[in-house]
């Protein structure tokens, strides 16, 4: 059993240990704001001894008279920095933070790349959908490719707005309307052109990723990695396979069978 005298001795020892511990904490808090305030509270849970319930509570305060418990910080001095204040000028972004002008410009360039590719693929769709060409599988493949590139451009536009940048659309070059080639035929010629466009897009994406690294923008780098790079490599492999198959087929009847296989893939 524990007598009241013994309990008083334990309480005094506990109080001394807490005071010593709190003094060390106060001396090490010089790096924190001078307005920082904390309260340490220790409760000894009630114990019954011979029918008597006893409990003890020890509280040490840093000197601030505010009735608080736990670890409480007053408003950080850093928040007063102008970099964290929301601008009031209507032409300025409120959300923009650590978003370099170079990153903003590089994203706009990538948007232009995606739209140019979409424009070329749409021209290919129109060519293969003509009544005197009538390769419906190739027409659908390039139409889907055009829509995918436009979707990529819109993703970049939404990201630009999210980071507080401004979307600036550049001019787009007129694509060719004819894709026939005397040596290779239209199907192989168009597919090789598509492969070149996908490789160019991948190169531009890697350049955009390098800009993000150079500007110390890990969020932009992660966005490019997670949304574009893997998909781009897969697209290059897929179209490279198509180029190899068309080279084996030549310009004859095999192109029609290849076109039908594209329709079957789209239907799956």
Helix content: 55-70%
On the 0 to 100 scale, the average pLDDT is 81
Span between N and C termini?
A: 80 Å
Beta percentage is 5-15%
Task: Sum up the overall morphology in one term.
Answer: elongated
Task: Describe the protein's architecture and organization.
By secondary structure, the protein is mainly alpha-helical. The chain has 2 domains: 4-84, no CATH class; 101-267, Ferritin, core subunit, four-helix bundle (Ferritin). The chain is 57% helix and 10% strand. The chain has helices at residues 4-27, 101-128, 136-162, 186-214, 218-249, 254-267; strands spanning 37-49, 52-61, 70-72. Strands 2-1-3 form a 3-stranded antiparallel sheet, covered by helices on one side. Strand 1 and strand 2 form a beta hairpin. The chain is elongated and about 75 Å long. The model is unreliable at 17-45 and 49-62 (pLDDT under 50).
Characterize this entry briefly.
The chain is mainly alpha-helical. The protein contains 6 helices and 3 strands, in the order αβββααααα.
Give the helices and strands, then pairings:
Layout: H1 4-27, E1 37-49, E2 52-61, E3 70-72, H2 101-128, H3 136-162, H4 186-214, H5 218-249, H6 254-267
Antiparallel strand pairs: 1-2, 1-3
Helix pairs in contact: 2-3, 2-4, 3-6, 4-5
Task: Write out key terms for the chains shown.
3-stranded antiparallel β-sheet, 2 domains, ferroxidase activity, 10% strand, 268 residues, 3 strands, 6 helices, Ferritin, EC 1.16.3.1, elongated, oxidoreductase, mainly alpha
